[in-house]
Design brief:
Layout lengths: L1 H15 L11 H4 L1 H7 L4 H4 L12 H6 L36 H7 L1 H8 L4 H5 L24 H15 L2 H7 L18 H7 L2 H5 L13 H4 L3 H4 L4 H5 L7 H4 L11 H10 L9 E2 L2 E2 L12 H28 L8 E5 L3 H25 L5 H30 L10 H13 L20 H26 L7 E2 L2 E2 H26 L8 H8 L1 E5 L3
Keywords: Cell membrane, Electron transport, Heme, Iron, Membrane, Metal-binding, Transmembrane, Transmembrane helix, Transport
Organism: Citrobacter meridianamericanus
Membrane topology: Multi-pass membrane protein
Length: 535
């Protein structure tokens, strides 16, 4: 009888206070004190008889800091009518007590509720096997914010999913008999699987790409798409949130719903200064300490480079057209052949050309996010590793006797540079002989020699190093030159790739500058260098 009187006074106090206009409202912490007297004590797990596995312990500090910190416990937890209430244990709660989230969130978060009803979990919800609290801990949830969470935060967030999906008995029960081992929890088919798992939440990929609430969970075959993050859109930015909706993002979402005075609400929203976003996306640069292939590009830089390379190609075409017109005046002379390109050199050359072709095609597919993005990632990586091996083969061949072609003869280099430059700009149109002829002692003229040295011993090693750092981003320094390391490496890799493309364009054009248009190409096929016999 005394317990009933105590409970009656408690609920009378709770119900009376909001109606008392002349007294201050009682803080939620004070109202929750009778509940926390037991539930803040870790020993409550030991005295529970019917919920041995339930998380009955509630940290008073964490609850106070959560989004529900000002909500009384009895606003969500209610005893069953006719029971003895909360004065006895175990408590007999009102049926459906763990599904009362919609009573508050059904209006302000109606889109989220609707998304849950369309998710893969909806069938379990109807059977009473799944609810909001299966994933969300209402006692510890904090307000969402756009941020770049660390690996520990991501791991903690993903624990909500793995709590069911990695537990054999629970998963079998919820999935209708499937074995937990039927899932590829290691995501072995995913490029950079460890990086994805350490830096992304499960819902970033497994939620419907068109669902901004992240609650319409679909089967993996329907939800996962590389483009949803690696495209030019800002979907990843919107998804890098904590679980509760951002209060600032919800500002004004209830306008026109008939719930508030819209005029006064607009005045309040106007008076509030917009918060500074924790995530900055300026011209494609997402966040300030990371890099994402396909998302961090700059359209302005791409357009500038495209125009520059296009203009360069037009210039070379004009040069070639001039040669074609003037070549008609050149007398026909017999060709001499000399064996100059050995089989190892030719094999290296064509393998190198094949790798560069694959790297350029796959690199474009990654940069502009084409279909089958993950496949292009694997292709680009395989071609990159192959290029490393081929470059080492080049070094080996150079050390075994081919390296003398890259040794610069400094004596008279100024005059040689002037003569070779004059030949390409003037003499080639008049049919003048080459200033320097290819021979077993020196295959390249001075301009070719300096170009190949810069490419093979400087640009290509840098391209390989930056590519490996992007392939293994964990080894990339956090900062380079006081700038975010991953962005510096990525932009340097992109710049080097552009320079290499320009070099390949020049290289292909120079292949036509032999004594006949196809002489140099034939030489790289059969090893014989062809040149006109001079009188």
């Amino acid at each position: 009888m005394r317990g009933l009187l105590t409970r009656g006074l408690f609920f009378l106090l709770v119900g009376w206070i909001p109606l008392s206009g002349y007294c201050a409202p009682v803080p939620a912490a004070q109202l929750n004190q009778p509940c926390l007297a037991c539930h803040a004590d870790g020993d409550i797990q030991g005295i529970s008889t019917d919920k041995v596995q339930a998380n009955l312990v509630v940290s008073a500090d964490k609850y106070h800091d959560s989004v529900h910190g000002e909500v009384p416990c009895i606003a969500c937890h209610q005893s069953q009518p006719g029971s003895e209430g909360f004065s006895v244990t175990p408590h007999v709660l009102k049926p459906g007590d763990d599904q009362n989230c919609e009573s508050c969130h059904g209006v302000a978060m109606r889109n989220t509720v609707h998304a849950v009803q369309q998710s893969v979990h909806s069938e379990k919800i109807a059977k009473g096997l799944f609810s909001c609290t299966s994933c969300h801990n209402a006692h510890t949830m904090t307000a969402g914010e756009l941020n770049h969470p660390g690996k520990q935060r991501v791991a903690d967030d993903n624990l909500m999913c793995t709590n069911c999906h990695s537990r054999a008995g629970v998963f079998t029960q919820l999935s209708g008999g499937k074995r937990s081992t039927s899932q590829d929890m290691a995501h072995s088919a995913l490029p950079y699987a460890s990086e994805h798992l350490n830096s992304l939440r499960c819902i970033d990929c497994h939620a419907d790409a068109a669902d901004t609430t992240l609650h319409r969970i679909l089967p993996a075959s329907k939800a996962i798409s590389c483009v949803q993050c690696h495209g030019d859109g800002t979907l990843l930015t919107a998804r890098r949130k904590t679980f509760a909706p951002d209060e600032n993002a919800m500002a004004g979402s209830l306008l026109g719903k008939g719930l508030f005075d819209d005029v006064s609400l607009r005045e309040k929203l106007t008076a509030v200064a917009p918060p500074v976003p924790a995530v900055r996306q300026i011209d494609g640069v997402l966040f300030t300490d990371t890099y994402m292939i396909g998302n961090n590009g700059s359209g302005q830089a791409d357009r500038f480079i495209a125009w520059a390379l296009g203009g360069f190609v037009v210039l070379l075409l004009c040069h070639g057209l001039g040669r074609l017109i003037m070549s008609r005046r050149k007398a026909d002379m017999p060709l001499e052949k000399s064996y100059l390109y050995t089989l190892p050199v030719r094999c290296w050359h064509w393998l190198n050309a094949l790798c560069f072709a694959v790297l350029i095609i796959s690199g474009c597919a990654l940069h502009w996010v084409s279909a089958r993005f993950s496949l292009w990632v694997d292709v680009h990586n395989i071609a990159g590793v192959s290029l490393c091996v081929i470059w080492l083969g080049f070094i080996l061949v150079a050390m075994c006797g081919n390296g003398h072609h890259y040794q610069v003869r400094w004596q008279g280099i100024k005059g040689r540079l002037i003569r070779q430059t004059r030949y390409y700009l003037y003499g080639i149109f008049r049919g003048e002989p080459h200033p320097e002829h290819a021979s077993p002692a020196a295959k390249f003229n001075i301009l070719q020699q300096l170009g190949y040295i810069g490419v093979m011993f400087l640009l290509l090693p840098l391209l390989i190093v930056t590519g490996l750092l992007m392939m293994y981003p964990g080894y990339t320094p956090e900062t380079l030159f006081a700038l975010p390391g991953k962005q510096v490496v990525a932009w340097l890799h992109y710049a080097l790739a552009v320079v290499m493309v320009a070099f390949i364009i020049v290289h292909l054009y120079l292949c036509s500058t032999g004594d006949t248009p196809g002489a140099l190409i034939k030489g790289m096929l059969d090893g014989f260098h062809r040149a006109r016999k001079q009188k």
